[in-house]
């Protein structure tokens, strides 16, 4: 499944969202007015896509349900056949006013509720803190499965807005999730994010929203300047170990992601592409001042020889991408006083080994790791999170599940190194650009690809990034 979300959009926690709403109210708005904006915005999307089909709106007892009542009224005014099924009476004043303004019959939501071609879930929003009833979850799955088109208002009902948990429930997937005011972590983080295939933003009158957490966006990479040469485009060094294939993939990826010169320090036999310069590891291998970035970890091994190479990389003044085996050998204390940029690229197991299991959402954990390491952390996975020590975070939409094949992490390390070597962006920008290229290349290949093919496809993704 490819997930589509707005690029470069702020991502707010439930608390930050409440604060934004309170600011809007303090500046003269009201809960009812925000609800009117939200429900009307939902109705716009449903009207546009429902093509006149009957719409069933499920309304909960809170303000999310109030948004649903407003949407029902707006759709009915446009001549769309609408039914409303509710869990019970509204429990907030604004929601009660919205139900009264709807003025039409309201069914009781139950296992007997009749399905409709278009389903709108406005049951629960950002305030949910526990699992929804199992019978209700089954009813939701049935109604969503029977609909040809399904919408979730703000969030799919049954998720933790901040952590992306589903409290153990198996929730349905919605065709379109309409984020009200701003995206929430649950739109992007697993397992909840799997229920939001496409996310679109509905403005509700909060004004301009900003924050340190944003979604991944197209990096806008420029073509080489007319006076460019191989070193100005970035020299990348990849330190190899016993598993030469992994480092070969990283080196190949660095070239395909735009590096001008790639040096592979290896004891392996030469393999295509022959443009990769291969030399044996030596004590002064990293002394060349033209080196823009060093990759260590892919295929490095975990023996004493590997530790010596990692120590040499850490002792250098080069920008580093640390991946794979090197993450298991790394001492975080060696990074704290380092001036040159460092990007760590752990998957879940490597992250736990490096930072511990920890608490909180994936965003919280990535940010904590970045601060502890004084480095940019790329917490890999279907929901990849990039965090910088200064508090900035970038979250990537869920990508191609066919990336779950050996070697794709090595390709990502090489792509990030190529971005880092060009020194036109900071470490978080380089990591984000590398993740964007990596994900775009995977989408272009679609399915059943090798990591070698992914590395080559970076060149095509690079064109799309310009």
UniProtKB/TrEMBL annotation:
Keywords: ATP-binding, Isomerase, Lyase, Metal-binding, Multifunctional enzyme, NAD, NADP, Nucleotide-binding, Potassium. It catalyses: (6R)-NADHX = (6S)-NADHX; (6S)-NADHX + ADP = AMP + phosphate + NADH + H(+); (6S)-NADPHX + ADP = AMP + phosphate + NADPH + H(+); (6R)-NADPHX = (6S)-NADPHX. AMP binds at residues 380-384, 409. InterPro entries: Carbohydrate_kinase_pred_CS (IPR017953), CARKD (IPR000631), Nnr (IPR030677), Ribokinase-like (IPR029056), YjeF_N_dom (IPR004443), YjeF_N_dom_sf (IPR036652). Residues 17-212 form the YjeF N-terminal domain. In the C-terminal section; belongs to the NnrD/CARKD family. NCBIfam families: yjeF_cterm (TIGR00196), yjeF_nterm (TIGR00197). This is Bifunctional NAD(P)H-hydrate repair enzyme.
